[in-house]
Amino acid sequence: SLCLVPKPREEWRLRARCFASHRFKSTTTGDDEPRETGGQTIADDTNTAWTAHNAWTSSSPRGSLYPGHVRLTSLQKALLAVTSGIGAIAFPERADLVGTANELSGVWAFQNMRDRMRKDSVGSELLRRRPRITDTTLERAHECAPGTLGKTWSTFMGTRKFDPNDRPAVRFVDNEELAYVATRAREVHDIWHVLFDVPTTVQGELALKALEFFQTGAPSSALAALVAPARLPPKERAYLFHVLYPWARVAGNRATDLVCLDYESEMATDLGELRVKWRIELAPGRDAGGEPK
């Protein structure tokens, strides 16, 4: 068909429609029904949208490597790493500060995790497919039988009103593949809580941070585990260093490589069987002061 040159008054309408055609793309849900996403990919446990980089760059800022990527200078990274690190220690409940500090200080750890995944059959498949853990994954996990990883995880999330989609997106990693590795590590955090039976108290979060360090080598996890306890009462701080941190070191080194596991495909598997298979050592059964978890 012939295309007429638009009049000046009509040109902005054509540009708006062109922008919308790139901005609002249909993705596929678990039921294979198209859904408009408003520019953000709705991912399930078989999501391969991360690899569709060419489809995204049309609506991403020029020079970005993936949706949401922010390119910084070395000086900007250094300043942001320091400020976010201080903020994460002062306010450990701020997931955005913790995540930013981890992204800017953990490039070496992400590279190490990526290399391990490449050498592992399951890990390399994860890098190829790039599945995401989202609310769709949680909905499917909720349908699993009691005692399974999926059901236990969905109950854990539901009682705490946690939503997988609430975790802040990775923004400051200047490599698309490493950004996925960082995202994967961030999204499986709550599943690790379930696997090791770690409570979501301040002590529990710091203990899991220590375990994450022994599994991933992320420096921000070590920094949080060492510095953040200064805010705890002496009795709780002593319990953390004398009981929980020794457990985290043993459990983190004993367990299988947790970054190379396809958790989504194991949601219907009995949790006890997985703990044996993956050499999971449960956290101590009592919190500081002898109180049950």
What can you see in these coordinates?
- This protein is mainly alpha-helical and 293 residues long.
- Helix content is 55%, strand content 2%.
- The protein contains 14 helices and two strands, in the order H-E-E-H-H-H-H-H-H-H-H-H-H-H-H-H.
- The protein has helices at 8-23, 53-56, 74-90, 95-105, 107-119, 121-129, 135-142, 149-159, 176-187, 189-196, 202-216, 219-227, 234-254, 271-277, and strands spanning 26-28, 34-36.
- Strand 1 (26-28) and strand 2 form a beta hairpin.
- Helix 5 (107-119) packs across helix 9.
- The longest helix has 21 residues, at 234-254.
- The chain starts with 7 loop residues before the first helix and ends in a 16-residue tail after the last helix.
- Residues 1-60 and 287-293 have low confidence and may be disordered.
Sequence of secondary-structure elements: HEEHHHHHHHHHHHHH
**Which parts are unreliable, with pLDDT below 50 for 5 consecutive residues or more?**
1-60, 287-293
Radius of gyration: 21 Å
Main sheet: strand order: 1-2
User: Number of DSSP strands?
Assistant: 2
Biggest pleated sheet? 2 strands, antiparallel
Question: What form results from the Cα inertia axes?
Answer: globular
Count every helix, treating DSSP H or I runs of 4 or more residues as helices. 14
Oligomer: single chain
Kindly, what is the distance between the CA atoms of the first and last residues, rounded to a whole number of angstroms? 70 Å
Helix content percent band = 40-55%
Task: Name the average pLDDT.
Answer: 80
Q: Provide the β-strand percentage band.
A: under 5%
* Classification by helices and strands: mainly alpha
